[in-house]
Design goal:
Rossmann fold; 8-stranded mixed β-sheet; 4-stranded mixed β-sheet; binds zinc ion
């Protein structure tokens, strides 16, 4: 019997499409553990796992990929190692950085699916906004005490921000707002993260196989024994719908291992390259996203620039406007650290 023989008996299952697929999983906590584990076992060809955090003791009751010996080590690296054992056919890359520094916009754009397994409002707003920038579908999950939500955001439909109040959306704008302070820490358990993580994974598999899935948001409630579709409308005033026009993106041979000085070769004198996250070491009151303010010989990766990032170029003077530079893939694949 072959590894995937039982899959072949499922109507609508397409093992070859799964093997050819790249899925980005943002957040490798309890939910990300469960979802990534199911995707790897299903035979997804390439998983890109992004999480800046280390394994802590409270993860051990909910995250099947972590062991007590892993405490203090990066979640993404540990999860990648365990998943490689579970599914040798899956190529897994770990990014041990915050989303904006871990996964570049060109990587999100070229992924077959992006799955959000995040537990902070600010991180989910940021992921939703970055998916909108490059027009890629986002499958987002979240848990509550006895259930949770699975939401599919298509590029032209409502986004995560559409369902939020202006005050909640502003969570991204306050650099001092610790994510956990915005959303108070809630109860969480392995059975519930397994439930919602599996719902995410089965939805992802159907999407990757080209099978139909329910649009919008599904609210799962184990206490009431229900799964209820909830309508979310696209809010025309939502500020998270900016799309990068493909014709304004210029591919450059430089990578995240290049330097700000390397990038100036591609700029006109009145142009300046920006980053998406504040440069490290800049004072909170004078945060800079101008690469011209960074050490010219520093590696972009060390400045928080993600692999295959698409960086905005601001023009000043008479030709006021914006265009973009797309970084190439670095020779050595994987994490910048
Ligand atoms: Zn929106």
């Amino acid at each position: 019997m072959g590894r995937f023989d039982r899959h072949a008996l499922i109507a609508g299952w397409d093992q070859q499409r799964l093997a050819a697929a790249t899925v980005v999983v943002c957040g490798v906590g309890a939910l990300g553990n469960q979802c990534a584990q199911a995707l790897a076992l299903a035979g997804v060809g390439r998983l890109l796992l992004c999480d800046p955090d280390d394994v802590s003791e409270s993860n051990l009751s909910r995250a099947p990929l972590f062991r007590a010996d892993d405490i203090g080590r990066p979640k993404a690296t540990i999860a990648a190692r365990r998943l490689t054992e579970l599914s040798p056919v899956t190529r897994i890359e770990a990014r041990t950085a915050p989303l904006v520094s871990g996964v570049g916009l060109a990587e999100l754009r070229d992924a077959d699916l992006v799955v959000g397994c995040l537990d902070s409002l600010a991180a989910r707003i940021q992921l939703s906004g970055r998916c909108q920038l490059v027009g890629v579908a986002l499958l987002d999950g979240g848990t509550s005490a006895w259930g949770g939500e699975v939401r599919l955001y298509e590029p032209t439909g409502p986004c995560f921000g559409c369902g939020l109040s202006a005050r909640d959306r502003a969570a991204q704008d306050d650099p001092w707002a610790c994510a956990d302070a915005v959303v108070p820490e809630a109860g969480a358990s392995a059975p519930v993260s397994a439930l919602v993580g599996s719902w995410l994974a089965v939805t992802a598999v159907r999407l990757l196989c080209g099978a139909a899935v329910a649009p919008g948001l599904i609210r799962v409630d184990a206490a009431g024994g229900t799964a209820t579709p909830v309508t979310v409308r696209r809010d025309p005033d939502c500020p998270l719908h900016t799309r990068i026009p493909a014709d304004l993106v210029a591919a450059v041979p430089d990578t995240a291992l290049s330097t700000p000085a390397d990038l100036t070769d591609h700029l006109a004198p009145e142009e300046t390259v920006m980053t998406w996250a504040p440069l490290p070491g800049s004072a909170p009151t004078r945060e800079s996203t101008r690469l011209a303010d960074a050490p010219p010989r520093a590696r972009l990766a060390d400045l928080g620039v993600a692999p295959r990032e698409i960086l905005p170029v601001r023009m000043t003077g008479r030709t006021r406007g914006i265009r973009y530079l797309e970084l190439a893939e670095a020779g050595g694949k994987g994490t910048p650290r």
